[in-house]
Automatic annotation (TrEMBL):
It comes from Amphilophus citrinellus. CDD domains: PI-PLCXD1c. One of its GO terms (molecular function) is phosphoric diester hydrolase activity. Keywords: Hydrolase, Lipid degradation, Lipid metabolism, Transducer. This is Phosphatidylinositol specific phospholipase C X domain containing 2. Residues 27-195 form the Phosphatidylinositol-specific phospholipase C X domain.
């Protein structure tokens, strides 16, 4: 029997639908929502070319050493291990980077992080299947990096999103109006953020500036936490959601030192306690956290910890009333 990794389960598959009426009436920008970083990098293809998101010297090494170099890259490209299980565990924000395969005929689009992953269509269909079974759950799909994509690729991707999700797509409106009650009434379950001018004028594609996600770009957990605190204090009061990226980013030196161990073992696991302590100490609400993302969401009870932060809002309301 196949076992699930620690921190992954289906106990939160319907967590949004199970929130109290007080919380479902609040703007979603004030709720705590768990997310994953580079959400679809649970599988990458070592036989495909190195992705166009990589620096020239990385492409050179991969060309020289072929599959061996790519197997090392896998250890530093994969930031998640499962996807359907992420949905079941309660992850509702997905950080998505996509690319065409240069030289491949047609307009097919793939998820990417160093190496190519699954076709985007396959991932979207899996999300749609989940939403069909869980009618009160809502996902944020943040398409924030595009590689080797011409105008026709963007047209293809935007059309694909509309084709797959149809009436589940939430039209762009004031962020303050987006509550779960509002989404349930309209039967909306998907909010797509598209960080490219190709989506201008498409009502169901939200502009990227509606979901800022400041990036610390550090390997040091203390610096990361200082950055998270500083950017939270600067969070816009109106007009946008907010992503706190509780992630550490490897440098070339980090990869060299931990070459054979990889991101999960060398950087993430050893620093998780510090990062999770920060998450557990947060409060959602007007001046608090909104969306929090993490690498390898299976390593801890990450989603559950973030979801439970919403109980603090309930306690505050009960106290006031």
């Amino acid at each position: 029997m196949k076992t699930r990794p620690a921190g992954i389960g289906n106990v939160n598959a319907d967590w949004m639908g199970s929130l109290s009426s007080k919380l479902s009436a609040m703007p979603l920008k004030h709720l705590a929502v768990p997310g994953s970083h580079d959400s679809f990098t649970f599988w990458v293809d070592v036989h495909a070319p190195v992705g166009p998101d990589q620096r020239t010297y990385v492409k050179y090494l991969a060309t020289m050493f072929s599959v061996l170099a790519k197997k090392v890259m896998v250890k530093w490209s994969m930031t998640q291990v499962l996807f359907k299980e992420q949905l079941d565990a309660g992850i509702r924000y997905f950080d998505l980077r996509v690319s065409s395969k240069p030289g491949e005929p047609g307009n097919e689009i793939y998820f990417i992080h160093g190496l190519f992953g699954h076709k985007v269509r396959d991932g979207l269909l899996e999300i749609n299947s989940f939403l069909g079974r869980h009618r009160k759950e809502v996902v944020f799909l943040d398409f924030n990096h595009y590689y080797a994509m011409e105008a026709e690729h963007h047209v293809y991707l935007i059309s694909m999103l509309q084709e797959v999700f149809g009436s589940k797509l939430c039209s762009h409106c004031a962020v303050e109006n987006i509550t779960l009650d509002y989404l349930w009434e309209k039967k909306y379950q998907v909010i797509v953020f598209y960080h490219h001018s190709s989506a201008q004028g498409v009502p169901v594609m939200w502009p990227g500036n509606k979901i800022p996600a400041p990036w610390a770009n550090t390997t040091e957990p203390i610096q990361l936490i200082e950055f998270l605190e500083t950017t939270l204090k600067k969070r816009a009061k109106q007009g946008s959601f907010h992503v706190s990226q509780a992630i550490l980013t490897p440098t070339v030196n980090t990869v060299a030192k931990g070459l054979l161990w990889g991101l999960r073992s060398y950087l993430v696991e050893r620093n998780l306690p510090t990062i999770m302590s920060w998450v557990e100490a947060q409060r959602p609400g007007v001046d608090g956290v909104n969306i929090i993302t993490s690498d390898f969401v299976d390593l801890t009870d990450f989603a559950n910890v973030v979801i439970k932060l919403n109980n603090l809002l309930l306690s505050e309301q009960d106290h006031v009333t």
